[in-house]
Amino acid sequence: MPDPALRREPLDGIPAITARGRLAIEALPPATRLVLRGAAAAGAAFGLALPTAINTATTDTVRAALMLGPDEWLLIAPDGAAAEIAAAFAGIAEPHSLVDVSHRNTAIGVSGALAADVLNSGVMLDLALAAFPVGMATRTLFAKAEIVLWRTGPDVFRIEAWRSFAGYLHGLLADAAREYVKG
């Protein structure tokens, strides 16, 4: 297995896309990502209360938990925290599965007043604030790529996607943003 310190992020060297302060599309920093299945009472081990409603998220300044299914959470923490989190979960008696998917995923941030418009070029969801409020997170498609879309602020979204789709997604977002970048 390659040394993680030498691992290159899929969007390294690709500049952020901005449009007059109304749009920013950028690669987000590396993070630890774990998929938790089955242990609803495990929030204490993660250090953050897990959400109890599907398609919602809880967060503090450091960690986030996104409930994507009846017994499935995507846990996001600072890069390199997987071993610490796994050790905290080791003492949980409740049946559960905790899988590190940090190597598989990457994140793209889309923010600004035009963020929902650009995302709607490939996501067939109503992204109006009333329909997709802050804190909502869901597994969906962007064009042909499966993503997790999480609204972290009124005009701020985080896309979690497989690393192999990062260039494809960034390219589609860049195409969608083109009319705003030149305008």
UniProtKB/TrEMBL annotation:
Pfam families the record matches: SoxG
Oxidoreductase listed as a keyword: yes
InterPro entries given in the database record: SoxG, TrmE/GcvT-like
EC category: oxidoreductase
Keyword line: Oxidoreductase
The keyword Transferase belongs to this UniProt entry's keyword annotation: no
Position of the signal peptide: none
GO molecular-function terms, A-Z: sarcosine oxidase activity
EC number: 1.5.3.1
Superkingdom of this protein's organism: Bacteria
Protein name (record): Sarcosine oxidase subunit gamma
Species for this entry: Labrys wisconsinensis
